[in-house]
Amino acid sequence: MVLHFGDFSVDLGSRQLLRRAEEIHLGPKAFELLEALLRTRPRAWSKAQLLERIWPRTAVSESSLTSVVTELRAALRDEARRPRFIRTVYGFGYAFCGDATEAAEAVSKPRGFRLRLFLDDREIALHEGENILGRLDEGVAWLESPTVSRRHARILVSGGQAALEDLGSKNGTYLRGRRLDSPSPLSDGDEILLGRVRMTFRVLPPVSTRTEAGS
Questions:
Q1: Residue 156 is inside which H or E element, if any?
Q2: How far is residue 52 from each of residues 32, 49, 109, 115, 163, measured CA to CA in Å?
Q3: 60 in the same domain as 147
Q4: Where is the domain boundary, 75, 103, 131?
Q5: Is the distance from CB of 37 to CB of 95 less than 8 angstroms?
Q6: Does a structural domain hold residue 36?
Q7: pLDDT digits (tens, 9 = 90+) for 86-103
């Protein structure tokens, strides 16, 4: 789903936020907040509901939510006192207050970027098509842990986009703290948990083929 509001476009599938043609960096938690508020606009969320949505099964203080709201407002160039998009419902929570329209077209993605998983000191390259994760030789990475199934999960890469899918694992596949029950798009900085094995998905810029003069 692609939504337009003000100068911004957000693709909830590929998890991208753009201001005109410029991609705006938004942390995973701030994007979760934006997605929640957009999907239920103009309904307000209580602070307790947002804490559970963004940090499921994790005890965090309201100050963590306040920090994420501040990050989102900064990205949207919004002001708490004169909000265009994020409204504070005093004594309760937050709501999206702008006019957002749905569009059929997808947000354009940069080409040539490299998709990687980072696991401790390992960098795992992802290739086009199916990338199996588990305890098997033919997988893209052998994950040595009794909490990881033989064919635990897979990452499907197509056209520069990646989606994570659980393959019926015993201990589950988690993305951004949520257990997956269907394929989910990945974005830069996403935290993935397979059993007890934690890794981070990254989108790296292309390697320049130009050589500096005199090198």
A1: strand 153-158
A2: 11, 5, 31, 30, 24
A3: no
A4: 103
A5: yes
A6: yes
A7: 999 999 999 999 888 876
